[in-house]
Every structure is written in structure tokens, then in C-alpha cells.
Amino acid sequence: MKKIKYIICDLDGTLLNDQKRISEAQAAYIRQLREKTGIRFGFASGRAISSLKPIAKENGLYEACDLYVANNGADIHDGATGEMTEMDMVSLDEMKYLLELFRPYPYINVTFHNPGRFFAVYDTERARGIKELNHYPEMVSPFEQEYKTAPRVTLVFAPERMEEVKKLVAGLKLPETIRFVQSEKDIIDLCHKTVSKAKGIEAYVKRFGDSLENVMAFGDNDNDLEMLGAAGVAVAMKNATERVQKEADYVTEKTNNEDGIMHFLQEHEDWFRSQEEA
Predict the structure, then answer these.
(1) Is 236 helix (H, G, I), strand (E, B) or coil?
(2) Whole-number pLDDT of residue 145
């Protein structure tokens, strides 16, 4: 089998349970596995970087987290050195265009963030929840306050409208440099075409002379597809979308609410030990 040197996990629906927590058992196991084998561990999420470090701290993984890939790959943070790398952003002109493009659809809340500030067209409970999860101090309207370029523009809507919104977005004329991916059951992200979790992870592992073949990746949603397709070992959660499960090499036997990652790694621990001995 391939020599795996990195374990990279998506957060929502994957490493986090539905209460947005990592169980103490799962966090302890990851710390122990990293200490025993020397494997590097990281997060790859659609969330902002302002959310990732607090998650690591609150769940006992801050010292164990070597890599944070945020905003679907637009921001890469080295946990050891503190070095931050920014990939291509959504330009101001593109952001203005997208705000106008979705103005006729009031059931879609267009959101994005700048450092310290969360922008949302509509002040809804879900928008306020996203603001809190990502540790933004304030939420304002992009039609009332000035804003800068952003790593992504996010569409938020009722979960039952996902397929409807996907069809709508696919039929609209997006800027040529923008692509869209589903990141949660009620969220579609609009990012620069050059940005992805896979490219963010690749930029990090190349520093050590490695490639994505040396990565084991866990995911559950469509914004994980490119990462899973490129990883040496791709693992979908039991609760993952059908597309993600088809793309993966393995599917966990347990869901994100049942410590699916921990159980999968425990089942394959002999393989990690053999790599350590080699």
C-alpha cells in the first residue's frame, strides 16, 4: 500500500459530530496515533481560518494539528510555523456581480467574510449561527458597508431547496473564473476555479518532498470530491453523499456521530504501525 504520511479531515459532517464537536475519545486517539507514528494531521474545511484554530483548541487537538486548509483551499496555515498562504480570491468586481445576480432570489442569502467582519444580505438565524461558528465579531449588509475581496462567496438557503438551487446556479451565467461546490446540506460555495482543498493540501506536503499520494483524506460532501480524488487513500464517511462514497476508496462503517474516523483508523492501525517500523 501507499506510504501515508498525512491524515487530513474535513470538519462538518466528518470529524465534527452534528453538535459541532469532536469526541474526547476521537481527539485522544488522533493525538496518540500522531505521537506513535509521526504522521502529520490536519483540517481541510470550507470554514474560515478564524474558526479552525478555536475548534482545535476546544477539542484538544491544537498541539496535534499540523495543517489548516480553510475556505475550501483558499487559505493555508502551517500549524507549526504559523505561516499563512493565500490562494486566489474572488475579486471585488466578481463579488458585486454575484450580489446582483442572486438579488432576484430572496430565498438565497448571499454571504462572505472579510477579516473580523461577516457580510450577509439577510439577517437570519442561520446567518447569525455561521457568524458565531466562525468567530466573527459583527455581521453587516454588503449593500450598506464597504467590503474587500474574499476567499469565497457563500449561498445559504433551506436544506430542502438544495437541488433547486444547484440547478439555478448551474443555469446562471457565473463569472468565468468562478466555480461552485456544495459544502453543507444548506450551503453552496462560490470560489475561484484555481482554489480547492486538494491544491491547498498539495502546496503544504510539497514542502516536505511529498505528494498527495502520501495523504489519507476523509470527507462527506461535494467540496471534498477533488481532495478525495487526488488523495492516495480516500475515505468517505458513512453519512457522506452518494457522489462522495462512489469517489472514495473506502467508506467508514460508522457516521460522524459515531466517531467514524477513529474506528476506521483503529481498524487499519496495523498498517500505520508497519509504516512506522519501515
Answers:
(1) strand
(2) 96
- The total of other beta-carbon atoms located within 10 Å of residue 28's CB is 15
What would the pLDDT profile of 109-141 be if each residue is shown by its tens digit?
999 999 889 999 999 999 999 999 888 999 999
Q: Which of 227, 209, 210, 207 is nearest to 218 (CA)?
A: 227
How is residue 175 written as a grid cell? 463569472
Radius of gyration of the chain from its Cα atoms, rounded to whole angstroms: 18
**Which residue type is seen at 195?**
V
The cell numbers describing 24, all together, are 474526547
Q: Which amino acid is at 147?
A: Y
Question: How many residues are given for the chain?
Answer: 278
Residue 40's closest CA among 80, 82, 99, 10?
80
209 burial via Cβ count (<10 Å: 0-12, 13-18, 19+): exposed
Given a contact cutoff of 8 angstroms between Cβ atoms, the answer to whether 231 and 3 are in contact is no
End-to-end, the C-alpha distance of the chain in Å comes to 12
**What's the one-letter identity of residue 250?**
Y
